[in-house]
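Journal club prep, notes for RB
We'll compare a predicted complex against what the paper describes. Inputs for the 6-hydroxyuridine-5'-phosphate case:
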Amino acid sequence: MSSRLVLALDETDPARALEIAKQVSPFVAKIKINYPLVLSAGLEIVTEISKFSPVICDFKVADIPNTNRLIAEAAFNAGASGIIAHAFPGPESLKALREVDASKDLYVVITMSHPKGGHFFDIESFCSLALEIGATGVVAPATRPEDVSKVRSLIGDLEIISPGVGAQGGSSKDTLKAGANFIIVGRGIYQSDDPAAAAEKYSKELV
Ligand code: BMP
């Protein structure tokens, strides 16, 4: 069965990040990278990691349509298979990302996993926006499975990818039960003494 695990590779040492990407690739569906790694390694790291796994650029894009477009072009040209965006700038900003390349995955953040991370997020409006613009899926927090259930009831069969398992204390079992398709784990894997073994263990919990 294919893995339902996404590695959040926030390791900032480029050589170590590449080595981890290589080791965990048999156990992950995708690798999500974020600013900490790209700011230390440059966008070329997207191309390098794509040799091992599809890469989601978690740039939480949140700008006017033209700037969103420029960011997506850079990420996709580097080889990213998908990109993550914030919903609050509205439909035109999200559509601009979609229009760069509709074959790429676009995930919309619905609400966030950290304490009080949901206070300024409008779950209903953001889910309806994700549907309206034809998103591939959404990001919803494993730390609040009740929010994942609510999101699932609002977005039909769009994908849900859920961070917050491991270091943030979320339960992968409860999150999958609430309707998530993929679980995102960062520190629980890349900070482990044996990232490949940790990725294998998490991936086995998700079948
Ligand atoms: P960790 O497992 O180390 O907590 O990493 C979680 C990853 O998911 C980080 O890259 C973080 O930026 C991201 N993330 C999150 O934790 N909560 C959210 O609500 C949205 C995220 O993208």
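Talking point for the session: The mean pLDDT is 97.
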